[in-house]
Amino acid sequence: MNQDEIKFLIKKYNNQTASTEEKKAVEEWYESINGEVLAQDQFKQEETKKLILKNITSKIDEKKSRQKPKLRKLFYAQFFKAAVVLLVLLAGIYLYIKQTDAVPKHVSYSSKKTNIIPGGNNAVLLLADGSQIILNKTSDGQIADQSGVKVVKTKSGELIYRFTGSSNPKSTAINTIITPRGGQYHLVLVDGTEAWLNAGSSIKFPTAFTGAERKVEVRGEVYFEVAKNKAKPFIVHTDQSEIKVLGTHFNINTYDDEEYQRTTLLEGSIEIKRGNQKVLIKPGQQANINEKSELIKIKEVEDLEAIIAWKNGYFQFEKSDLQSVMRQVSRWYNTDVIYNGTIPTKQYTGKIPRSINATKLIEMLSFSGIHCQIQHNQITVNPK
């Protein structure tokens, strides 16, 4: 396959006419190819492009040689997978390979604090007595003991609640974990339920679940893997809904600056209640709630991995508008975003590691037509 044919398919991806299968294939091929390419940091851009192209076409030829005539359609499906990944590799990976090369002309930086760092494990634990523990500044090991439950911070930076004695204590204490902008945290509740908090989020919970239900309250974005207990349902309260769970995996996004509260189910089943309305959603579905309406709208989700990409260390956009993209950036980098001129109405699709600093981030965004500059700890978005 020559470069013109591959460029044609990349254009299809850029125009957002690629199929769901083609989009999913991008990350599969990204993972299989980037290890080979990233190790070769001595290559210059053109040489890197040729290497990527060679890798892709060799994989295509290898697959083609093994195909029987009746499986030719399958070969073309694999070719699409190879072709669409080229977009990601050429538009993004090169930024890792040659960090010292020239920055695109439309990306500019101020001399004052251009290196805005990404977020990390950063949270505050509020105990029942009102005391505060800054978790990223606290040593590993036991940090509290409340009503027969010890609180332990592990070396990997997670917080675990464990019984010190009886698993049925007579009293309990209420704790809250808050992640600021630029923070995230992993929590294991005393029943074994795990919760991952995104930036600018919180969860309020008892140190032990003593009643007929396991109740918590959340704000922001939290991903749950709920321990199964049919006799004691897990209840999540938000400003706009109540979510009832027996044991399942789901993500809830309830940021105040988002148009909808979105609850996405990955495994199991959950019941969502808003006012007098109750709905049961299945894996692969998302419940959307708008504060201006009592209705709960259900939609199918094409790519569940995109919903929890933040938990796995990525920004992942699926036909997202510019403001949605930049809200995520603002939370994770703890920086304000300013728009200079008219806000473009284009939609964006892509995946970017959350581990890179803001300077590198805006370089990568520039390849998607999002032109920014950093100045005075702020990101300014320019029309062009």
Radius of gyration: 23 Å
Count every beta strand, where a strand is a DSSP E run of 2 or more residues.
Answer: 25
CATH architecture of the largest domain: Sandwich
The CATH class of the largest domain, by name, is: Mainly Beta
Mean of pLDDT: 79
Silhouette: globular
Task: Classify the fold: give the CATH topology of the largest domain.
Answer: Jelly Rolls
**Helix count from the secondary structure assignment:** 7
Summed up, the domain count is 3
Low-confidence sequence ranges: 33-44, 67-113
Distance between the termini: 34 Å
Proportion of strand residues: 25-35%
| Largest sheet report | 19 strands, mixed
Indicate the structural class. Answer: alpha+beta
Helix content: 25-40%
GO molecular function: sigma factor antagonist activity
Pfam families: FecR, FecR_C
Domain Protein FecR C-terminal: 314-381
Organism: Pedobacter roseus
Description:
Helix 3 runs antiparallel to helix 4. The protein has three domains: 95 residues, no CATH class; 79 residues, Phage tail protein beta-alpha-beta fold, CATH 3.55.50; 187 residues, Jelly Rolls. The strands form three sheets. It has a 19-stranded mixed β-sheet that branches. The longest helix has 26 residues. It is globular. The protein starts with a helix and ends with a strand. The protein has seven helices and 25 strands. It has 384 residues and is of the alpha+beta class. The relative contact order is 0.10. Helix content is 27%, strand content 34%. About 15% of the residues have low confidence. It holds the Pfam family FecR_C. Keywords: Membrane, Transmembrane, Transmembrane helix.
